[in-house]
Design a protein that fits this description.
439 residues, mainly alpha, Growth Hormone, Chain: A, two-stranded antiparallel ribbon, 71% helix, disordered N terminus
Length: 439
């Protein structure tokens, strides 16, 4: 890989952001006592580096939702309820939610690349062990352990992007990473569903575990080491770390971002988990293999998310987050159709589009809203709230299903989306102003 030139960050400012709140350059102390800024990559940098960022998203999300196309199969094989088999989805998101703040704080002082590679290797272990599960509760346990490992990867990649690219490039690079997560989510479901249909569900986890280990090796080879030094901050004790992490809840902009993140993943998991039961029943009667192909709609994120990243730079984050949520609401309504094409391309396609745009916007807003030196822990807490939303989205719609099946699930999800529209509009504002938006 060609060496990367060292340049200074762009001189452009962020519209609507106070200078004191812009991402600050880390400072390198020289032997003579002078200081020199460590500059981020100019522009978008090497195509290999962008490809590595995309691969981080692919392999990080390869395992997160893999049981969704297999849920009707699990319901039959394990003779369990819809809510019980849905725990194979919620267990992994709960693991992410629990460990995200702690792993984020630990990763604050470690090499971003090293954490990403090590996290993928550790993720491969419970994935392989899940294939040995004789009963549903043990499978749920391995899924939970998978989730515990994942935040180290997520938070480190987000922080790597924020520290290694100039402020004017971060939104687009972040959208490339989110596109990778969309591809990973699709591939994981497709591989798991097809393998389970034509071999068995145990083979699905075995294959995914091997692919995750191979992904760790590939990223170790092509992802460049950090060009900027790690922030030189004191290493507080555990109590101080917890206090500092909880302090993020006192930041209104971060609090709004965390709430929006909770609601967006609630919508995504709720929709894509319980729609499998809806589509496995008449009049659709889709098989496990057909349900795995259903998640090809995630590929829309490969096109929509970078385009959405560009759109956000034009209309601002505040309007952008509201626009994204409105797309989700429209998609939820279209899933009530009895026409499969409308359900998939109109309904699920718009839900994906809105969630991917919102996730890219919110992840970028966390970087702006968090003070310098706390961005990894702020990102970790964002992931915690985000995946708590996913956990709730895998469990609470089960109650709604028992009351009114799929229409009741849509009503619940739409109510959550309506609530977070107001929160997003109020919270995604520039600091110290009530009218400006963040670009």
């Amino acid at each position: 890989m060609p060496s990367r030139p060292v340049t200074s960050p762009g001189s452009g400012t962020l519209k609507g952001v106070d200078a004191s709140n812009r991402p600050q350059d880390h400072i390198l102390a020289t032997n003579s006592g002078q200081t020199a800024p460590a500059s981020p990559r100019p522009g978008l940098g090497s195509p290999w580096t962008l490809a590595a960022v995309c691969l981080c998203g692919i392999f990080a999300f390869l395992n997160l939702y893999v049981t969704q196309p297999m849920l009707p199969m699990f319901e039959h094989l394990f003779r369990a309820s819809k809510s019980m088999v849905s725990l194979t989805v919620s267990a992994s998101t709960l693991g992410v939610a629990i460990s995200a703040p702690f792993l984020g704080a630990i990763a604050e002082r470690m090499s971003r690349k090293r954490v990403i590679v090590l996290g993928l290797l550790l993720l491969a272990l419970p994935t392989l062990l899940a294939a040995t599960s004789p009963r549903l509760p043990l499978l749920i346990l391995w899924r939970f352990l998978q989730g515990l490992v994942m935040p180290a990867i997520f938070a480190s990649v987000i922080t790597y992007i924020g520290e290694e690219w100039s402020p004017l490039s971060i939104a687009l690079v972040m959208s490339i990473y989110v596109s990778g997560t969309a591809m990973g989510g699709f591939l994981g479901r497709l591989i798991a569903g097809l393998t389970a249909e034509y071999l068995n569900w145990r083979a699905s986890f075995l294959l995914l575990g091997l692919l995750t280990a191979a992904g760790a090796a590939l990223i170790a080879f092509i992802l460049p080491r950090e060009k900027r030094p790690l922030p030189q901050h004191p290493h507080p004790g555990l109590t101080a770390q917890i206090r500092g992490t909880l302090a993020h809840f006192a930041n209104p902009r971060l609090l709004a971002t965390y709430t929006v993140g909770f609601g967006m993943l609630f919508a995504l998991v709720s929709t894509f988990t319980y729609v499998t039961f809806y589509l496995a029943a008449p009049p659709f009667s889709l098989s496990t293999a057909a349900l795995s192909h259903l998640f090809a709609i995630y590929l829309i994120g490969l096109l929509v998310t970078p385009a959405g990243g560009y759109l956000i730079t034009r209309i601002g984050m505040r309007r952008g987050i509201v626009f994204a949520i409105l797309l989700c609401l429209l998609g939820e309504g279209l899933t009530l159709s009895h026409n499969l094409w409308i359900v998939v391309f109109g309904g699920l396609g718009l839900v994906c589009t809105g969630v991917f745009m919102a996730q890219s916007t919110a992840a970028n807003f966390v970087r702006l809203a968090a003070p310098d030196g706390t961005r990894v822990s702020a990102a970790g807490l964002y992931l915690s709230c985000y995946y708590l939303g996913g956990t709730a989205g895998g469990v609470l719609p089960g109650v709604a299903w028992n009351l009114g099946q799929w229409p009741a699930c849509v009503a619940l999800t739409s109510t959550v989306l309506l609530l977070i529209i107001g929160i997003g509009w109020a919270g995604f504002r520039a600091p110290g102003t009530s009218t400006k938006t963040i670009p």
